[in-house]
Amino acid sequence: MNWENLLKPGRFDLKDKQVATLDNSRSEFERDYDRIIFSAPFRNLQDKTQVFPLPEHDFVHTRLTHSLEVSSVGRSLGKIAGEYLLSTYPTLSEQGITSADIGAIVAAAALTHDIGNPPFGHSGEDAISDFFKFHQEGQQWKGHLSASQWADMVNFEGNAQGFRMLTAKNSGLKISFATLAAFTKYPRPSDLPDPEKGRRSQKKFGFFHDQLAYYSLLADNLGITEIRPQVWLRHPLAFLVEAADDICYSIIDLEDGCTLGLVSLEESIRMFAAILGDRFSEEKLKEYKGTSQKLAILRAMAINKLVRETADAFIEKEEAIRKGTFDQALTDYIPSAIALEEISRISVAKIYRSKPVLEKEAAGFQVLEGLLDVFSKALYHKFYQPELYSGQDKSILRLLPEAMDLNEYDGSDAYAILRGLVDFISGMTDKYALSLYRKVKGISLPGA
């Protein structure tokens, strides 16, 4: 792979090139960022939990604030990396690429990194997968799908759902190939046999069965190497997007955990100090009186150091990344890796397995399974068991969004029907999913 191809302009909507010539005030990649910020899927992140369920504390992070912070860190990483790339590959400047452009690509991709996550966090992903794996109403669809299509349904993946949302014709985003590639941390489909152990890019999958052609076209345009059928190397900037997320959730989840009393201030300070090393001063920290002030300054200093270390790691591994001989998380190869590993261990024990988080996960399973049960049963009756298609089913299906026009389906494509249903449910906010669940189950009435 070479950077001249990897950073080429271009997007799926060819007509959009005409628009680009009319707007010289922003680069193509800056326009990506702006489109995402003003999109409805991005706004919905404000009511999706990051770790803690619908927190009463307004300073605890949601998916929206987390995504903005990851984007900010990503922009810094991208600009530092960009300065190195421009000095190492002078033809990029001749191509009109700037370090700000590279920062904008990483920032925009980072902004969308959680856009495909369903309600109730990662437990929501498991709930959707488990419905098709284990629930009677989900299992009955299996005979109508191919093996690849069924693999998508029993392995719901937020990253793949995000790619689907970013390439959907009705989303209005139409972001560039480079930003989409930087977003795609796992460039392979769900039914890959024998993923290579040790390759970070094959740990999960990045697109569903019906999006394979989109990624293939993207990879062809950018010159991304296909290492085996339907499996590609990562775009190098995807490593920076991943690192920005790793930095933010490690540091900021710890901050939130301390704020909520799940991790003591003393223990939090000790873990921050392990990252800061000789930059940590207990005496200076005493100048800040409140807990939130102490945490804020430690968080800022820690992120700043981790950004510098990660950028250095990217620069060191850049050639190996392009050649595909390095396929690990950058944050595993920085001086602070051991300190981050301890934060992760403490976070799992005291934050991610805390009672509020576990209660949220349990509720998420009930709510999403309940919604899928009601809607999938009605859809199955309509298209495959018309003798059972009841008035109740008709009422339920009238609640589907206008974008899912059932007149466009005839029952010959069960996969398209289920993808539309999962688009609807995974795109809900936590509060809307809970509210709709109560209504369709008769637990509460509209306006009650």
List keywords for this structure.
mainly alpha; single chain; DNTP triphosphohydrolase; dGTPase activity; putative deoxyguanosinetriphosphate triphosphohydrolase fold; dGTPase; eoxyguanosinetriphosphate triphosphohydrolase fold; 1% strand; 60% helix; Hypothetical protein af1432; 448 residues; dGTPase-like; hydrolase; globular
Description:
The protein has 448 residues and is an all-alpha fold. The protein folds into three domains: 3-118 and 158-237, Orthogonal Bundle (Hypothetical protein af1432); 119-155 and 355-448, eoxyguanosinetriphosphate triphosphohydrolase fold, CATH 1.10.3550; 242-354, putative deoxyguanosinetriphosphate triphosphohydrolase like domain (putative deoxyguanosinetriphosphate triphosphohydrolase fold). It is 60% helix and 1% strand. The protein has 22 helices and two strands. The chain has a two-stranded antiparallel sheet with strand order 1-2. A hairpin with a 2-residue loop joins strand 1 (226-228) and strand 2. Helix 14 runs antiparallel to helix 17 (291-323). The longest helix is centred in the C-terminal third of the chain and has 33 residues, at 291-323. This is DNTP triphosphohydrolase. Residues 63-250 form the HD domain. Keywords: Hydrolase. InterPro entries: dGTP_triP_hydro_central_sf, dGTP_triphosphohydrolase_C, dGTPase, dGTPase-like, HD/PDEase_dom, HD_domain, PHydrolase_assoc_dom. GO terms for molecular function: dGTPase activity.
